[in-house]
């Protein structure tokens, strides 16, 4: 579409300025901050997409593609048909969410019962919560890090990693775009990985901005034995100077988890890499995601809209299911391995 405003937003150095109401953070509830951050990321991603498509927008839309979008049938669950599409694909994008890690026993802190002590994640995973009580927030993330050190990739993670390794020898590519911060894809062996929400095992200095991997257990001595999730547990109230500190020469700034918190926008460099992969893929898989968290919820429908096959692997249907060519219901660890197994037409070395 021809949208000069989108081009302005993409090129204008002031494009990241927040509306005036964003300055009133102290008056905004955690829920509103969550939706504000979601909308800002959605706006950011949409503006970039519109700008990148501005030239194409000068041309008439393809009637063939338009017909496909309008007349697309309900998604198929025929694995043989999917396997034929899979065998021909040269560049596969796999978008994963919390569902792919749930089978590894990873807590989600969502919905009823999704509490750490007496708080839900959206009350702790915010810049404001960290500013108010960095000790409590670090206890929460220390607990999550320690839990994840005991978890292992499940058959879905392994199937994705093995597929990537196998297809790379055939001149084909697989890239994983994940919303998860648990690094189970990395532990399974996935190499081409875009972690759009960051990682539990990376830190960012609040003073110098340095980002680094950190797998220490505990991450600092003061957090040893802390972070118990029991609602009766008292806060450790660790002094700031005893919390994780930056190790860059002469810095000693307070570290924070390198994850995207509620109210924050996604890394623009990561979004650029995601856009590139979505533009060139010829098959997209959506695995274990609810398709309700933006901007990630836009990724697969956008691919489907240009006629590229999309296959959804999830326990149940999502708001986006009817926009996809395939849907396979059930645990990802059960449905995904046979879908990504070696096809009989593949050339073996």
Automatic annotation (TrEMBL):
InterPro entries: DHS-like_NAD/FAD-binding_dom, NAD-dep_sirtuin_deacylases, Sirtuin, Sirtuin_cat_small_dom_sf, Sirtuin_class_III, Ssirtuin_cat_dom. The active site is at residue 197. It comes from the Eukaryota. One of its GO terms (cellular component) is nucleus. The keyword Zinc applies. It is an enzyme of class 2 (transferase). Pfam families: SIR2. The keyword Cell division does not apply. NAD(+) binds at residues 97-116, 179-182, 288-290, 314-316, 332. Binds 1 zinc ion per subunit. Keywords: Cytoplasm, Metal-binding, Mitochondrion, NAD, Nucleus, Transferase, Transit peptide, Zinc. Zn(2+) binds at residues 205, 208, 246, 251. Its EC number is 2.3.1.-. In contrast to class I sirtuins, class III sirtuins have only weak deacetylase activity. Difference in substrate specificity is probably due to a larger hydrophobic pocket with 2 residues (Tyr-141 and Arg-144) that bind to malonylated and succinylated substrates and define the specificity. This is NAD-dependent protein deacylase sirtuin-5, mitochondrial. It comes from Melopsittacus undulatus (Budgerigar). The gene is LOC101878180.
């Amino acid at each position: 579409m021809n949208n000069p405003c989108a081009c302005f937003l993409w090129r204008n150095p002031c494009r990241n300025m927040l509306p005036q109401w964003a300055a009133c953070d102290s008056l905004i509830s955690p829920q509103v901050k969550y939706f504000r951050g979601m909308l800002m990321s959605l706006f950011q991603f949409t503006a970039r997409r519109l700008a990148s498509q501005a030239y194409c927008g000068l041309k008439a839309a393809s009637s063939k593609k338009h017909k496909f979008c309008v007349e697309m049938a309900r998604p198929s669950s025929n694995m043989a048909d999917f396997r034929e599409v899979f065998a021909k694909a040269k560049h596969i994008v796999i978008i994963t969410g919390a569902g792919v890690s749930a089978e590894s026993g990873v807590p989600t802190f969502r919905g009823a019962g999704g509490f750490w002590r007496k708080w839900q994640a959206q009350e702790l995973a915010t810049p404001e919560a960290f500013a108010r009580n960095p000790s409590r927030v670090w206890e929460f993330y220390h607990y999550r890090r320690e839990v994840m050190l005991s978890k292992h990739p499940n058959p879905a993670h392994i199937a994705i990693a093995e597929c990537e390794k196998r297809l790379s020898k055939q001149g084909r590519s697989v890239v994983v775009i994940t919303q998860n911060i648990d690094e189970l894809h990395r532990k399974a062996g996935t190499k081409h990985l875009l972690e759009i929400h960051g990682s539990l095992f990376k830190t960012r200095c609040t003073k110098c901005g340095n980002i680094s991997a950190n797998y220490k257990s505990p991450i600092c001595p003061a957090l040893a034995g802390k972070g118990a999730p029991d609602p009766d547990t008292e806060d450790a109230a660790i002094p700031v100077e005893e919390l994780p500190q930056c190790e860059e020469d002469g810095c000693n700034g307070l570290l924070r988890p390198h994850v995207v918190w509620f109210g924050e926008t996604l890394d623009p460099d990561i979004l650029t890499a995601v856009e590139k992969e979505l533009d060139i893929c010829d098959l997209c898989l959506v695995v274990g995601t609810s398709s309700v968290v933006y901007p990630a919820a836009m990724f697969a429908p956008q691919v489907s809209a240009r006629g590229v096959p999309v296959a959804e692997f999830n326990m149940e249907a999502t708001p986006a299911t009817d926009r996809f060519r395939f849907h396979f219901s059930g645990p990802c660890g059960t449905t995904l391995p046979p879908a990504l197994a070696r096809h009989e037409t593949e050339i073996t070395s």
